[in-house]
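Record 1 of the preview.
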Amino acid sequence: MATAELDNQALETLTSDERVTKWRLDQLRAAGYSDAVAARLAARTDIDLHVAVDLMRAGCPVEVALRILC
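->
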C-alpha cells in the first residue's frame, strides 16, 4: 500500500478536532517552529495560528514568540 493511501486512511480515523490540530501543527512546522514547540502551540486553541506564523515570518526568535503567544 502506498504511503499516501496510509496517510489518507489515518486522516479518516481522526476526529474533526484532531484534524484541525494536525493542520495547525503542519502550519507551525512550515513556519519554522520545532516539532516540540509546534505541537505545544497546535494544541492550544487559544493561540492565534496566524499571529504565531506571522511572528516567525517576521524573524521573531522562538523564545520571544512564545512569550508573546503564551
